[in-house]
Amino acid sequence: MTDSVTDKLQLREQRNSQKRNEKKALIADSALQALHELGFANTSLRDIAARAGLSLGMLHYYFEDKTALIAYCVKTYKSGFMASLEGALAGEQDRAAVVARLSGVLAFAIFNDGPTHRLWYDIRNQALFDPAFRETVNDIEQSLVQVMKNAWVLAGHSDSSFSPLVYSAVDGAFQYLVHQQALGVAKNQQAIAGELQWVLERIL
Q1: Looking at the chain, which terminus has fewer C-beta neighbours within 10 angstroms, N or C?
Q2: In 3D, which of 116, 108, 45, 125 has the Cα closest to residue 77?
């Protein structure tokens, strides 16, 4: 096979892979809409297929089952969320700035993407009982721990003094505020940022 033919085949394969990934991303958007409205337990693949304008068979072409689809959705969103946290911390060397920037990004996430974070906590709980979610949940959680470790060091602490319990404390505050928004004890973004800043000042 000539180099020219090989190059064309590789290019075609790359295009097909890109199209497949784009389609999966569109399906994930439809899935998140359904999950926000119905919750994990009440959302079926048929619900998601209907929102995505696909047959159930076509949906199975892209995702083996509901677990695979949900894991993809959560992992995709959390990757973007972690990137925003890392971006907020980039270049910061002052504790006050780290606290302010981090509380701002977390508050934005709660105020604007609360339903997706509620889904994350739902899936994290499911992982206690369903092994199918454990690898995805563990990967995401370890990445979040690393982000918090970076914040810890930037705030002036030594790398060796960090404990994952620092992440756990911040996550507990974040989860509480996510749930408060969902339960109707809603605050504006600025108020949420203020509460998170109060917590982070005591943890970091």
Answers
A1: N
A2: 116
Q: How far is CA 93 from CA 68, 147, 150, in A?
A: 39, 15, 11
Report CA-CA distances (Å) from 135 to 3, 71, 175.
40, 9, 21
| Angle in degrees, CA 57, 63, 68, rounded to 5 | 140
119 and 35 in contact (C-beta within 8 Å)?
yes
Q: pTM for this structure?
A: 0.83
* CA atoms of 131 and 192, how far apart (whole Å): 34
Looking at the structure, tell me whether residues 172 and 103 fall in a common domain: yes
Distance in angstroms (rounded) separating the CA atoms of residues 59 and 61: 5
Here the CATH number for the domain that contains residue 74 is 1.10.357.10
Between vectors from CA 170 to CA 169 and to CA 176, what angle results, nearest 5°? Answer: 90
**Domain containing residue 17:** 1-63
- Kindly state the tokens that stand for 143: 């990445």
Q: Which of 82, 74, 76, 177 is nearest to 119 (CA)?
A: 74
pLDDT in tens, 159-178: 999 999 999 999 999 999 99
What is the rounded end-to-end Cα distance, in angstroms, of the chain?
Answer: 60
Residue 185's contacts (CB-CB under 8 Å, 6 or more residues apart) are none
